[in-house]
Design a protein that fits this description.
Strand order of the largest sheet: 4-5-10-6-7
Bound molecules: flavin-adenine dinucleotide
Structural class: alpha+beta
Number of domains: 2
CATH class of the largest domain: Alpha Beta
CATH architecture of the largest domain: 2-Layer Sandwich
Number of helices: 12
Strand content: 25-35%
Number of strands: 14
Shape: globular
Radius of gyration: 19 Å
Length: about 290
Amino acid sequence: MKSPDFDYVKPTRLAQALSLLAEHEGEVQILAGGQSLLAMMNLRMSWPKLLVDITGLSELRTIALQGPSLRIGALVTHAQLLSSALVSTHVPLLFQSASHVAHLAIRNVGTIGGSLALADPAAEYPAVALCLNATLVLQGLHGERRVSAQNFFQGLYQTDLRAGELITAIEFASVQANEVQVFRELARRRGDYALVGMAMALRVKQGRIDGARLAFLAVGDQPVLALKTMQHLQGQVLRELALPACLAVLRSELIPKADLQAQSTTKAHWAGVLLSRALGAIGEGVA
Ligand SMILES: Cc1cc2nc3c(=O)[nH]c(=O)nc-3n(C[C@H](O)[C@H](O)[C@H](O)COP(=O)(O)OP(=O)(O)OC[C@H]3O[C@@H](n4cnc5c(N)ncnc54)[C@H](O)[C@@H]3O)c2cc1C
């Protein structure tokens, strides 16, 4: 099926893009990689009168260290993330997750900003952003807002983005020397959307866990922080960690939503498998 007719503009300046978004509020959509939006238009799930193609805004394509953070422009593609030494060094969790996103042709054009704005509950980056509590930089005609990932994701395909705003960048705190970041996912085939996925960041001080963050994807309407499990891990001696107790805490708090892929109990089991594998990999020093 072909999409309904639409007008198309490709601005070359951010101010011009923002003016267009404000002027055509309610009937405009931002076009980035188009890997999700164009399919939604063809399926009549989205029918904007105007597409504002932001791929001409070269300032949104950069990856740069800014003090203790890595700032990643919204137009950075999945492929760019995978070939960036800055990303692999400073945000290994994001780097690991990018290799699970779709396939080469899609990775070459799909963007991190598009993925976060779409907020698909089975997508990798929203869970990574939540795990690391990244900051989303949102720009509207009247200024900039900085929103933490914890506040940004608000439900099924729902975010804190307001009409007229676009994501310009995402800022991740650089991984610390005593921090291990691990991404694990189960999918039918590499590159398919996840059946269940998990993003984990553990800080370890003198053998004890001194800060644990754990976010799951494809378990509900939005990525979910496993708060009780995070609390349970805090202060534990890593080498002496009792896995069954961790899994019991996870089971007590994570009640995945069933979907077309699997029942809730199956997903809960898979989530436990991912947690075991991630903790096992850290224990063996191979994460
Ligand atoms: C076959 C296939 C398999 C896929 N598999 C996966 C997968 O395994 N994991 C995964 O995470 N994704 C997957 N995707 C989706 C892919 O990652 C997309 O690239 C991504 O979801 C959207 O990015 P995009 O740049 O293409 O955005 P677009 O499709 O251009 O836009 C998506 C939405 O975000 C909005 N938007 C885009 N950029 C911005 C911005 N800067 N500010 C505000 N709003 C913006 C658009 O208006 C639109 O509503 C898959 C896609 C396909 C076609």
